[in-house]
């Protein structure tokens, strides 16, 4: 049987290795991970989720502190004041973050940015437009539109000089969602450069309801490919969600896919932004430790480890400085729930299980979102003498996908002296 290494993934005029590492916000798919994929000829994603926070952390800007100050001042004048991100700040944050990553790019691969529509920031379409424009002006190779139907997103950048030459793809989980996107795309005469079909076993937010287990990635991919053929549309299809080995990937390529998008295997890489302890928790996970729940205020179900510190927490929302999930009216389902939650005898808020403060928990990397196959990660690396697992470099995982045969996974040789602290740059 052929190896993944025997194929190439053509997107527009570019030829890539057929592996896309999916976007993992906030800064779980780090610049180092994306740059590593590009250097090896594949496609790596950064994520623009909470880019003002990322700028503050990486470049010492004070976007969040200034927003908080401004909001507090305005609230004194008008107690109903809604804390919003302004377009100019969001634009600059995205542009500068993207430009800083692109400046380090080496190799023939691509750096794409994952842009979630559900990140509403108090002004959904204005900030989405600023994010997209910032990414294009920062020199990004491609934009992957995710977490939403994006039926009007292309229109927001229709007049941008890079609108037709940058790759712009979309993540969908059903043919129905694809058709909605294509209707919007036809209004600006711009087909997607690629289509990521994300199935029910993926990490992050799911494009399925709580009945996700009734769906199959294979069937959705078949349906999408046969629809595109029937419409004479030649758009690369990239399945995602549960693609654990190169053999899984080759099976999809044999069905007509151009490549695959993967993420969970890379969560334990040295370059991944999760803290080392979280990587070890992922590695120790069993299948029973994983659940799909509705704690995300986006309204989409999300897969995560049951031990995520984000579950059952009662953090006071910090919308004045963060507020990435606020809708135009200043609502967020966690904030609303927090306000209604009673306090205990000591005056302390009771734990909240239904929703989480996604801004604070993602900022602190305390939501352990993962693909269904997280419990198989322990079979992809070696155990160190102290009982912890070796964290492989991303290059090892990337090459293992390329060279896998008959579902094989090559274990890293590993440095058995690696302590968890040395093992991560997260
Ligand atoms: C830790 C983690 C965070 C993720 N965050 C995002 C995200 O911010 N945006 C998004 O579109 N997808 C996100 N995903 C989904 C991945 O990009 C990818 O499509 C999917 O997880 C692939 O399935 P796999 O993890 O089984 O390989 C995330 C996945 C993981 C594991």
What does this 3D model show about the protein?
The protein is built from 13 helices and 13 strands. By secondary structure, the chain is of the alpha/beta class. The protein has a single domain (4-275, 385-412), classed as Aldolase class I (TIM Barrel). The chain has an eight-stranded parallel β-sheet with strand order 10-8-7-6-5-4-3-11. A hairpin with a 2-residue loop joins β1 (9-11) and β2. The chain is globular, with a radius of gyration of 21 Å. 51% of the residues are buried. Mean pLDDT is 96; it is low at 420-426. Bound molecules: flavin mononucleotide.
Tags for this model:
426 residues, alpha/beta, TIM Barrel, 8-stranded parallel beta sheet, 13 strands, globular, binds flavin mononucleotide
Topology summary:
Blueprint (H helix, E strand, L loop, with lengths): L8 E3 L2 E3 L2 E3 L9 H9 L3 E5 L3 H9 L3 H15 L9 H16 L7 E7 L7 H14 L4 E5 L20 E6 L2 H13 L6 E5 L5 E2 L11 H14 L6 E4 L5 H9 L5 E3 L13 H9 L5 E4 L8 E4 L27 H8 L17 H6 L30 H10 L16 H4 L3
Parallel strand pairs: 3-4, 3-11, 4-5, 5-6, 6-7, 7-8, 8-10
Antiparallel strand pairs: 1-2, 9-13, 12-13
Helix pairs in contact: 2-4, 4-5
The chain binds flavin mononucleotide.
Globally, the shape reads globular
Known CATH architecture = Alpha-Beta Barrel
Helix and strand run: EEEHEHHHEHEEHEEHEHEHEEHHHH
Q: By CATH's scheme, which homologous superfamily applies? A: Aldolase class I
Strand order of the largest sheet: 10-8-7-6-5-4-3-11
Unreliable stretches: 420-426
Per DSSP, the total helix count is: 13
Number of domain modules: 1
The share of residues in helices is 25-40%
CA-atom Rg in angstroms: 21 Å
Find the structural class using helix and strand composition: alpha/beta
Percent strand: 5-15%
CATH fold assignment: TIM Barrel
Give the number of DSSP strands.
13
């Amino acid at each position: 049987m052929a190896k993944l290494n025997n194929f190439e993934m053509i997107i527009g005029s570019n030829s890539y290795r057929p592996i896309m590492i999916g976007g993992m916000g906030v800064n779980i798919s780090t610049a180092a991970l994306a740059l590593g994929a590009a250097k090896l000829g594949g496609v790596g994603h950064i994520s623009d989720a909470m880019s003002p926070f990322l700028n503050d952390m990486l470049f010492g800007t004070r976007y969040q502190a200034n927003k908080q100050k401004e909001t507090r001042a305005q609230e004194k004048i008008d107690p109903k004041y809604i804390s919003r991100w302004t377009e100019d700040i969001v634009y600059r944050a995205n542009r500068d973050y993207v430009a800083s990553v692109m400046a380090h790019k080496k190799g023939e691969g691509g750096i794409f940015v994952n842009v979630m529509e559900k990140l509403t920031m108090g002004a959904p379409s204005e900030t989405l437009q600023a994010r997209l424009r910032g990414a294009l002006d920062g020199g990004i190779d491609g934009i992957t539109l995710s977490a939403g139907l994006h039926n009007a997103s292309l229109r927001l950048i229709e007049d941008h000089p890079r609108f037709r030459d940058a790759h712009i793809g979309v993540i969908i989980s059903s043919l129905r969602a694809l058709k909605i996107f294509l209707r919007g795309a036809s209004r600006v005469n711009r087909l997607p450069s690629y289509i990521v079909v994300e199935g029910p076993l993926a990490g992050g937010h799911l494009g399925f309801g709580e009945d996700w287990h009734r769906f199959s990635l294979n069937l959705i991919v078949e349906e999408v490919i046969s629809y595109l053929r029937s419409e004479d549309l030649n758009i690369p299809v990239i399945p995602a969600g549960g693609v654990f080995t190169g053999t899984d990937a080759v099976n999809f390529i044999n069905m007509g896919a151009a490549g695959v998008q993967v993420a969970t295997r890379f969560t334990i890489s040295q370059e991944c932004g999760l803290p080392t302890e979280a990587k070890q928790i992922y590695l120790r996970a069993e299948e029973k430790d994983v659940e799909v729940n509705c704690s995300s205020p986006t309204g989409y179900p999300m897969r995560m480890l049951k031990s995520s510190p984000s579950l059952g927490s009662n953090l006071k929302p910090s919308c004045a400085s963060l507020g990435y999930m606020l809708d135009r009216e200043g609502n967020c389902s966690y904030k609303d729930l927090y306000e209604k939650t009673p306090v205990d005898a000591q005056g302390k808020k009771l734990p909240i299980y239904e929703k989480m403060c996604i801004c604070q928990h993602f900022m602190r990397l305390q939501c352990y979102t993962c693909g269904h196959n997280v419990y198989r990660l322990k079979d992809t690396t070696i155990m160190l003498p102290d009982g912890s697992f070796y964290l492989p470099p991303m290059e090892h995982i990337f090459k293992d996908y390329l060279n896998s045969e008959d579902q094989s996974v090559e274990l890293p040789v590993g440095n058995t002296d690696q302590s968890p602290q040395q093992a991560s740059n997260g």
